[in-house]
């Protein structure tokens, strides 16, 4: 303890070490992803050093496609130690992977259709739609 406040890192230090903006810390606090930090007598936020690791975990989970609500669930499941089946990382990662693979399939189909449109010389949607061999999937009337 120094001056009545537990030793730790100030907002700018934590943000810099984790590669986030200081505003991100406050946002994550409001969302409940981070505990409210201790305050110095001058009102400065002081975070425990493990907050840097937690921020890195949150950012990594986001890069893997998890929403902040999903990240909150993952953190809660990990902190409790007794997650319901499928509530931990493995179950949620399987579900996320399934969704991502489905999206990849959808995007591959879109890419193939765009390649076909380019190969067919489509330059105008209305003109292309009138052609009997138009590769674009216009809905039937």
Task: Give a brief description.
The protein is built from 6 helices and 3 strands; from the N terminus they run βααββαααα. With 141 residues, it is mainly alpha-helical.
Features:
mainly alpha; disordered N terminus; 2 domains; single chain
Main pleated sheet:
3 strands, antiparallel
> Which second-level CATH architecture of the largest domain applies?
Orthogonal Bundle
Order of helices and strands: EHHEEHHHH
Straight-line N-to-C gap = 74 Å
Low-pLDDT runs: 1-5
Overall body shape: elongated
Which structural class do the helices and strands define? Answer: mainly alpha
Please report the number of helical segments.
6
Overall domain count:
2
Task: Give the helix/strand layout.
Layout: E1 9-10, H1 11-18, H2 22-31, E2 38-39, E3 45-47, H3 50-63, H4 68-80, H5 89-119, H6 125-130
Antiparallel strand pairs: 1-3, 2-3
Helix pairs in contact: 1-3
């Amino acid at each position: 303890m120094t001056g009545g406040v537990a030793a730790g890192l100030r907002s700018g230090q934590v943000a810099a070490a984790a590669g986030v903006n200081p505003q991100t810390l406050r946002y994550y606090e409001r969302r409940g992803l981070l505990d409210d930090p201790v305050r110095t007598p001058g009102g400065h936020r002081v975070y425990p050093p493990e907050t840097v690791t937690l921020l890195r975990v949150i950012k990594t989970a986001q890069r893997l496609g998890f929403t902040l609500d999903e990240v909150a669930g993952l953190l809660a499941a990990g902190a409790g130690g007794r997650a319901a089946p499928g509530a931990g990382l493995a179950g949620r990662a399987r579900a996320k992977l399934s969704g991502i693979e489905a999206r990849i399939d959808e995007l591959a189909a879109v890419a193939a259709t765009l390649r076909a449109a380019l190969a067919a010389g489509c330059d105008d949607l209305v003109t292309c739609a009138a052609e009997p061999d138009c590769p674009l999937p216009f809905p039937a009337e």
